[in-house]
Structure formats: C-alpha cells, structure tokens
Design goal:
This protein is an alpha/beta fold. The protein has helices at residues 8-11, 25-36, 47-62, 96-101, 108-119, 145-162, 171-179, 185-188, 206-212, 214-233, 236-239, and strands spanning 80-81, 87-91, 128-131, 166-170, 193-195, 198-203. It starts with 7 loop residues before the first helix and ends in a 5-residue tail after the last helix. The protein binds iron/sulfur cluster (SF4).
C-alpha cells in the first residue's frame, strides 16, 4: 500500500539534483507544462496520469540514438512496474534476455531479484524497476560514462514521475550515479542515505549473487529488509525534511 502523499508537497519542489541530473529535453517540456499549471502539480498527478507521462517518455526513448548503444540493441528497455511505487529499483543496463524481451530484469539475475524481493513482501506489480542505461551494452560490458550521461535524463524523469520513497540501487553504477561517491558497493551497502527528500539504499547487483553465492544473496536480503523498514517507518514529519 502506498504511503500518504503529504510529503510530496515538498518533494515536488526539490526532487532531484537539477544541475547534473536533469530530465530529457523532450520530457522537461511536458514536465514544465505541468509545473507551470498550478492545478496540475506533479504531486497531484494521479497514478494514471503518471503512467501516461511515463509512456510518453518511453515512446521517446524507443527511438533514441543519443549514444552508441542504440546501434546494436534489439529493444530499448525503458522500465516496468507500478508508476505509484514506494520502491524504485535501479540496475545497470539490460542484458541479453532483457534486450530480446524489452523488459528489465527478466533473465537469471532478474529472477533472483524477484525472488528476494518477494521474500520481503514486494511483488513486481508493486515496485518499479529500471536501469541506468536503457540499451544493452554489447557483451554485457560495463556502461561507459558518456553512455550514462546520455541516458540519465530518462532516469531523472522516471524518478520525478514515480517519486518513490526509497530508491534501491543495484551495484556500483547506479549507486555512484545517485550518491556521487567513488566508494564501491561493498562499502556503500548496508546503509540508508538521505537523497533529495527520499532515501537511497544501495545493494549488490543480483548478478553478483549469482557469481558469489548464498553469502551475497543474504547481504542483498539484509538491504531489502532495510529498504522495507524505511518505507514502513516513514512518517510525513520525517519526510518533509524539517530536520535536515
Ligand atoms: S542507452 Fe539511453 S541514451 Fe543511449 S541510445 Fe539507449 S536510450 Fe538513448
């Protein structure tokens, strides 16, 4: 069940680090149109309106050629899930299965992630999942900085529209992008980070658990439980940022 949206009165005005984490030019236009109309503040959009906006942005991304990853992709993997989610999960980039199906986290890593989230009571229909880059890096290589820079506007738009209470970042790339720290995920994880009126909970990418076994999966479990606790404990007074 979604938390009360009273907190969003503030979040709507300081939702993202705008200097370097802006939305796409196309979508900023539509978001500005919304923001300029006091009757349709982002905060007051219904889940249906937010879903519609996400579709508009996804349509734009579907033909995006802003970086070289467009050349070899089968599908743009924009993201999937509940536009009204309390939890947004951000991975690195699509793999082979995701590229073929156009959906995030549907391969082996995704199945493990889904299972770990379900253990904590979070089903895919309840959350929203996306990646730092929306097109598959060839051979599942790491995304390059210029690709991340070219694509991050889409992620900014997704975060603005979904406005989750908690963002769970999977692995180094999404964690470093949001938290702006060079620290590796092994040291970052296990903590909750205040982030522009929300909270970021970094954890390992599930692919690391496939390689590293039960020990890594247990650490992801711990971090998911941490994220769950943040959502459960969240109260409007805390989320208004009065004590930051
Ligand atoms: S990765 Fe992002 S920026 Fe690059 S082509 Fe795909 S959608 Fe566009």
């Amino acid at each position: 069940m979604r938390l009360p949206r009273a907190r969003l009165f503030v979040l709507g005005r300081r939702s993202l680090p705008s200097d370097d984490f802006q939305g796409t030019a196309h979508t900023l236009r539509s978001l500005h149109q919304i923001a300029e109309n006091p009757g349709t503040m982002l905060d007051s959009l219904t889940p249906e309106q937010r879903a519609k906006q996400l579709h508009v942005i996804a349509d734009t991304a579907a033909s995006c050629t802003s970086c070289g990853l467009s050349e070899r992709r089968t599908n743009v993997v924009f993201g999937a899930g509940n536009p009204d989610a309390d939890l947004m999960v951000i991975g690195e980039g699509p793999g082979k299965d995701e590229d073929e199906q156009g959906l995030p986290f549907v391969g082996r890593s995704g199945q493990l992630l889904t299972s770990l989230l379900e253990e904590a009571g979070w089903y895919r229909r309840d959350i929203y999942i996306s990646n730092v880059v929306k097109c598959r890096p060839p051979g599942n290589r790491d995304p390059q900085q210029e690709e991340i820079d070219a694509c991050k506007g889409y992620l900014a738009d997704q975060i603005k529209l979904i406005d989750p209470a908690v963002v769970m970042t999977l692995g180094n790339f999404s964690s470093r992008l949001l938290l702006k720290r060079a620290t590796g995920i092994t040291k970052l994880r296990g903590h909750v980070y205040p982030w522009w009126g929300r909270h970021v909970v970094p954890t390992f990418h599930p692919a690391a658990a496939l390689r590293g076994g039960a020990k890594v999966a247990d650490l992801i479990r711990e971090d998911i439980a941490l994220a769950r606790q943040v959502v459960v404990d969240a109260r409007p007074g805390e989320q208004l940022g009065l004590f930051e």
